[in-house]
Hints:
The complex is a heterodimer of chains A (about 270) and B (about 350). Chain A is about 30% helix and about 30% strand.
Amino acid sequence: MSSIIEIRNGSFAYGDKSVFENITLTISRGEILCLFGPNGCGKTTLLDNILGYHKLQSGSILIEGENISCLNKAEIAKRIAYVPQVHDKSFPFKVMDIVVMGRTPHIGSISSPSSKDYSIADEAIEAVGIKHLKHRIYTTLSGGETQLVILARAIAQDTSIIIMDEPTSHLDFRHELILLELITELVRTKKISIIMSTHSPNHAFYFENAGVPAKIALMHNKNIMTSGLPNEIISEKNMERIFNITSKVFKNNLPGEILNFIMPLKTIKK
Amino acid sequence: MNSKPCLKNNDSKKILNLPGVTKKTLLVIFLVTVPIVVIFISLFMGRYPISPAETLRTLYQGITSGTNQPGNVNMDIIWQIRLPRAILGGMAGAALAASGTALQGLFRNPLVSSGMLGVSAGAGFGAALGIIFFKGTVMIYILAFFFGVTAVFFSYTIGRIYNSTPAIMLVLGGVIVSSIFSALLSLVKYLANPYEELPSIVFWLMGSLASASYRDIAISSVPVFAGITGLYLMRWKINVLSMGEREASSMGINVNLDRIIIVFCATLATAGAVSVCGIIGWVGLVVPHMGRIITGSDNRILLPASISLGACFLIIVDNIGRATTGTEIPLSIITAIIGGPFFVYLLKKYKGGNW
């Protein structure tokens, strides 16, 4: 598999405060990478660097073989779309208005979306199953519905990579599953690569169980402690090292169905 | 004023919604026609009575055989007083409303207007200097414009202390710079001759179209049209920018550059209007909200609608100011006294539904 994103010895600091150092990481086409680690370990900052929102202090990030520092905003946006943890609503736009904004990098700098852009946005709305919300004012939607609108916007952006920053952290049980199913579908049918930060190792298990190429990277102490297949990386030992907790991994390799998951059990007090 | 045929508080079936050629053409015609009608109405309003028929005839005569007809009082009143006044009012209203709409979208904040970034305070100080040192009106325009733009430049520089210029820092910079220029303005007022200069400064600060002339229109039209055109071209990007910096950036917007362009255009338009008409509060803050209630939040429709609405609003306010009482009431007084309750009425009627 060819690598679509390659981070080489990336380091970043806010002023004097180092956030991560010498990170090396690759993601292949049609693969999901779950970025996992404690609060404040720098997941969001790393994603910001891949999005071109921040610039690495040293090292490089290659997107489809091109150095990100040589690409302008629109060129990056044609390759990478973004789904935030929670979208901060401002004005009462209609759902369609929001989704079609994903077309921005593909249209001229002083023009507006064309009817073709609208039909692409329509397809994206259909793909996430929110056709019934198309004409609604998006400020009246629930958190789960809003996140689907934002995902549709990312799909309409028509990129080979989508970056998601804890996309399910504010969603209810059902909407979390809807989002995971949609991500699986995107990777399976469109060969999109996904990087998502998450606080649930079971998300990585979910993708692996579903049979799509999935990796998990454990971020700890300003670095990627280890990365690889979820069933190798998500272990009781690693959870203890990073979070100081005891946990239990359940592996169910049934014929025709894999169903692995992890259950946190107890914090270890020192 | 801008009475629309059907304004239902209904999400999906608003009249100005779907992009379509005929609908778009109708909308453009509507947005252009309404201010023209309002300008025409303001030609026969005033203390000197001229009937609508008479107004039409005078307009026609002016076009066909020139406006320079000694002894024809109607000709002078309509062509030299009321028409330039209405046109200047329309331009100023459009400039303030367009700037307010763009800045509210850019800063994702419904309480922002161009005054927020220090234009008004800077222009007020510049005009006061002009009144004291130069007396001549052109210098007042130039200094007001210069200090209006300078104030925004300082606000922006202060905002940049934080190296990525978050929107809130810019607004904070505006607050700081505004208060400094207000203090400087107070100083000038304190030193001004209380019999001649001080009243001029005070009147200027309340805004007026009373001395409107074609020269004023010519002077302010350059920055006003340049600014409004710039904002109009940015209308789609303003939509995307209102998603927030990080998301706008992820959709390919060069946030810092586009923010500079929008702030610059809004400043240009506002300073162009304010330097000629004096400080006019409230229009830039409230007209965008009226627009939002009527058309929704999409700046592709909202911005042109605000331009049209702002023009109508200020012309009407000026008509009220000059025609209702024996003396002229300065603009800012009426914009607030009329605009405030009208805004409350709109909020109550639509319960913030489309807003």
